[in-house]
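Summary: Need help interpreting a holo structure output

Steps to reproduce:
1. Submit the protein chain below together with the SMILES for zinc ion.
2. Request a joint structure prediction with the ligand placed.
3. Inspect the structure token block that comes back.

Expected: a single structure record containing both the chain and the bound molecule.
Actual: see attached output.

Input attached:
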Amino acid sequence: MKAKETKLCKNKNCQKPLPEDYKHKYCESCRNKRFDKIKDGTKVGLSLVALFVGGVGLIAKGISENID
Ligand SMILES: [Zn+2]
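--- attached output ---
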């Protein structure tokens, strides 16, 4: 029997064996997780910007109200 090189998912916490003709380095579920993370990261980044802008606006408003 010939030893076949089994490709494993590159995720160190996963290491799931991948099908021989699989084109990706990560298994399907890890790929989905990765994309979710990227999407979440964008969302977090956008909400941080929104928070920052909103916070600065509130602070500016508070300062001007205190001055009045
Ligand atoms: Zn995986």
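--- end attachment ---

Reviewer comment: Residues 45 and 51 are 10 Å apart (CA to CA). The chain is about 60% helix and 0% strand.
Status: needs-info
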